[in-house]
């Protein structure tokens, strides 16, 4: 009798605990939704004034060429640079908020990796002006066509490459694509001969706003949102990101993506079975 009552009490306790946990989870979900909505609305509100500031400063620099003093030109250049940084931050925040809210669409289609590489080469050329770093696109190995969201692959690779250029003073940045036959996946890698990242910081760089101290950090522009965004995009495409790095030698950022979106890659042979 006593035992039955005790069991009933415990049962009631467990039910109450579950109800409380459920309510808390619901509360957290709502708070998370509100955060995503807030970020998304704010980012939209920021975008329009920022693009006007950017467009008008560019116009001022182009139109009144020669009529501005050196100091005035410097100051408008500063406005332009700062508004470009803020735009990057707003775009990254908006993308993160969209992914978190499940509002980013994946548009899979067949595309040619060689063509993606030549488009990237064209887009990144302006970043190389005055750089002592060579950008090398290797011939894709074992694969030419894949089926996934090309724009998102391009976004991940642009992020990796612009980081590699930012944190490499001399040498080369090498981009490759290779078929991982057993996994039915493609591994894109961006390797650099730059500063490298210490083992204890290799997790931090994937956290939001996670930037690590190094001698170039103060000179380069950045939001600390690029890599977390890349990681979320890779997950969205059913893939993963890997990092190998050694201080003083350089880094290799890789993204492994299923050859065909929607067909999960086989687990890598080296990974223990789940
Ligand atoms: P951002 O580059 O905008 O600061 P990211 O999230 O892309 O933000 O990168 C976070 C940080 O990771 C960088 O600020 C830098 O400290 C480090 N990092 C990223 N890529 C590299 C790289 N190729 N070499 C060395 N450090 C890097």
UniProtKB/TrEMBL annotation:
<protein>
    <recommendedName>
        <fullName>histidine kinase</fullName>
    </recommendedName>
</protein>
<feature type="domain" description="Histidine kinase">
    <location>
        <begin position="41"/>
        <end position="261"/>
    </location>
</feature>
């Amino acid at each position: 009798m006593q035992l039955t009552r005790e069991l009933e009490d415990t049962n009631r306790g467990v039910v109450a605990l579950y109800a409380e946990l459920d309510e808390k989870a619901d509360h957290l979900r709502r708070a998370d939704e509100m955060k995503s909505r807030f970020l998304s609305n704010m980012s939209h509100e920021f975008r329009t004034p920022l693009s006007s500031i950017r467009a008008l400063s560019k116009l001022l620099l182009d139109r009144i060429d020669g009529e501005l003093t050196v100091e005035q030109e410097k100051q408008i250049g500063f406005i332009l640079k700062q508004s470009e940084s803020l735009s990057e931050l707003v775009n990254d925040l908006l993308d993160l908020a969209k992914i978190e809210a499940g509002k980013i669409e994946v548009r899979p289609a067949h595309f040619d990796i060689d063509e993606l590489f030549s488009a990237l080469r064209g887009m990144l050329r302006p970043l190389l002006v005055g750089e002592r770093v060579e950008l090398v696109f290797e011939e894709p190995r074992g694969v030419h066509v894949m089926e996934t969201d090309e724009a998102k692959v391009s976004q991940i690779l642009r992020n990796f490459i612009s980081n590699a250029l930012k944190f490499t003073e001399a040498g080369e940045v090498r981009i490759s694509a290779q078929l991982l036959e057993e996994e039915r996946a493609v591994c894109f890698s961006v390797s650099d001969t730059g500063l490298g990242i210490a083992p204890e910081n290799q997790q931090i760089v994937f956290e939001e706003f996670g930037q690590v101290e190094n001698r170039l950090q103060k000179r380069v522009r950045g939001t600390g949102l690029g890599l977390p965004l890349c990681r979320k995009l890779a997950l969205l495409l059913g893939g993963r990101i890997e990092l190998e790095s050694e201080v003083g030698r350089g880094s290799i950022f890789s993204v492994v993506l299923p050859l065909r979106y929607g067909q999960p890659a086989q687990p890598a042979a080296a990974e223990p079975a789940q």
